[in-house]
């Protein structure tokens, strides 16, 4: 099975059943045309809205709006020979099927980038390095275009990495700076896991 790079011109409508029922303008979703409660001028409470001391979760510009209640996960563990001297994380192991009878009929080993990265979709930037400043800027621009306002950066404690990667804590300042340049927020690191909060 070959990988395919998808671009907006490829017609995502075919991949998203029901999306054609949403209000579109020039091929883009028109957020303003979706039915909403009445609005008020900036700084004024919405008619009939209860008083709240909570800050707004989203900024209010009609174009280029970022929704700070929409989070997107961002991983910094990818590497490429041009920047890192080798592929990192793109060449992870072929994950075996959970049923040993079925697993035996599939190959074993590692993915072989740049053509085989173990993904149904191939990044338009190729098998990139997370350390490439141009890639980081492009990613922040793409995230801003998606309207997501908060990055949740996946990283291990200092000096640690998963079995397929290398430590990346030194990239966190660059991610923070790039996010700031694009008006994106970065979720702060907490000393407990999601499971400790949700699974209790």
Automatic annotation (TrEMBL):
Membrane topology label: Single-pass type II membrane protein
Source domain of life: Eukaryota
Record's keyword terms, sorted: Golgi apparatus, Hydrolase, Membrane, Signal-anchor, Transmembrane, Transmembrane helix
Main location, first listed in the record: Golgi
An annotated Gene Ontology molecular function: alpha-mannosidase activity
A cellular component annotation (GO) from this entry: Golgi membrane
Disordered, as annotated region: 32-61
Subcellular location: Golgi apparatus membrane
Keyword Hydrolase: yes
Family, similarity comment: Belongs to the glycosyl hydrolase 99 family.
Protein name, UniProt field: Glycoprotein endo-alpha-1,2-mannosidase-like protein
Lineage of origin: Eukaryota, Metazoa, Chordata, Craniata, Vertebrata
């Amino acid at each position: 099975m070959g990988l395919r790079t998808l671009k907006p011109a490829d017609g995502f409508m075919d991949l998203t059943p029901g999306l054609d029922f949403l209000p579109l303008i020039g091929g883009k979703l028109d957020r303003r045309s979706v039915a909403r409660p009445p609005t008020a001028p900036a700084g004024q409470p919405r008619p009939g809205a209860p008083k709240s001391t909570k800050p707004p979760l989203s900024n209010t510009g009609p174009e280029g709006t970022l929704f700070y209640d929409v989070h997107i996960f961002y991983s910094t563990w990818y590497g490429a020979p041009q920047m890192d001297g080798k592929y990192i994380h793109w060449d992870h192991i072929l994950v075996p099927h959970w049923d040993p009878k079925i697993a035996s009929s599939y190959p074993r080993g590692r993915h072989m980038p740049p053509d085989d990265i173990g993904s149904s979709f191939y990044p338009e930037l190729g098998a990139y390095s997370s350390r490439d400043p141009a890639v980081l800027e492009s990613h922040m621009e793409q995230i801003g275009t998606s309207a997501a306002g908060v990055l949740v950066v996946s990283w291990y404690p200092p000096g640690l990495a998963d079995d397929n990667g290398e430590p990346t804590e030194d990239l966190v300042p660059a991610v923070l700076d790039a996010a700031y340049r694009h008006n994106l927020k970065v979720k702060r690191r907490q000393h407990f896991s999601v499971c400790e909060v949700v699974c209790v």
